[in-house]
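Work through this protein:
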Amino acid sequence: MSFFPTTDISFADSEAIDAYARLRVSNPVTVFESKLLGDKNPLVWDDALTTGGTAVYDQDSSTLTLGVPTLTISSSVRQSKVRSNFHPGKSHEVMLSFCMDGTTAGVTKEAGYNDADNGILLQLIGNTVQLTRRTNVTGTAVDNSVLQAAWSEDKFDGTGPSGATINWSLAQTMVIDFEWPTGRIRAGFVIDGKFWVGHKFLTANVLDRPSFGVSNLPIRYRIDAPTNVLQASTMQVMASSVSTEGGSAEGHSTGITRTGYATAANTAFGPLMVLSQANGSGFVNLVPKNLSLACNSAAKFEWKLLLNPTFASPQPTLGVLTNWITTADIALTNASAVTAGTTLASGVVDTSASEIDLSWVKAPTGQAGDGDADVICLAISSIAGSAITIHGSFNWTEVR
């Protein structure tokens, strides 16, 4: 006789389980990470400074200090260009380190996984500390804020489970994990090597819409003086990461082909094809896969994959590809000579190359805080300086 027990074994609700109540083990997949070693990492971050706002890098401490001056209405915002891809059914964990440098009357300081319309963030508004769920599901951004004194799990005033009192003048590591489009959102801090939840936002069976409108969001730090404050104020940006817990899906692949591109009769680089994402659709990441190139004649030529180059007139006219959010221009001539930009990959081809692998290229494509999208250009140059005819194709993955 066989006996099959019906005992249900589950894990107690704690920081040891992810946002979907699965045991958290040490195999998350990192989808974004940034540390400020050597410079302020300008390929990954966009800094928007208004009316005296500052963003000062310090190599000795690997930090970037955002600041606002006295007697000036100003702001400084640092936002990642890449918006990390959320995978439905898999917990998203965000970690960001910073030092708020204390509170300042009349100054707002923020750090979180958010943009101006959606996300989860910590706010210090003057001496008021709160966690906020920002949502734009109605078409207007609304902040649903919970004061520190009302945090559900640990107020970090010395009376909670951690026993810790947070000093906002000292460095902190904030952790956010969440389900989406609905479910539980947790935000808290790492104290002595352990993640302690401060507050839980519960939205399942509570709201009739998603917790926030977009799940693919940037890391964002902001300091703002909306009035003429009497005291200058700063906050320090340190390291950050976003991980998906339970594996990562690659996305959907596509490609474009151009035939009969004529290079200039010199060694200048010209645009074989130009790619970007539609402005305002920053939740998409473009990941290069491979390219193929061929020449009508036995001529050697050089290629470069460039990020945000400069084009001579006429400028690219980017059209949205059918069924995709990617935009492209494969009609520019060699009159639009390509200069500057950041080289992501390059090579030399002797007549033809059947397939060039680009899967190793970590192209930090994204959008600035104002919605201005990064541009990728596949540029070609005749090594001998004679006019040649090039045919090429470029394949990439659209992650969204």
Remarks:
- The chain has two domains: 29-245, 252-399.
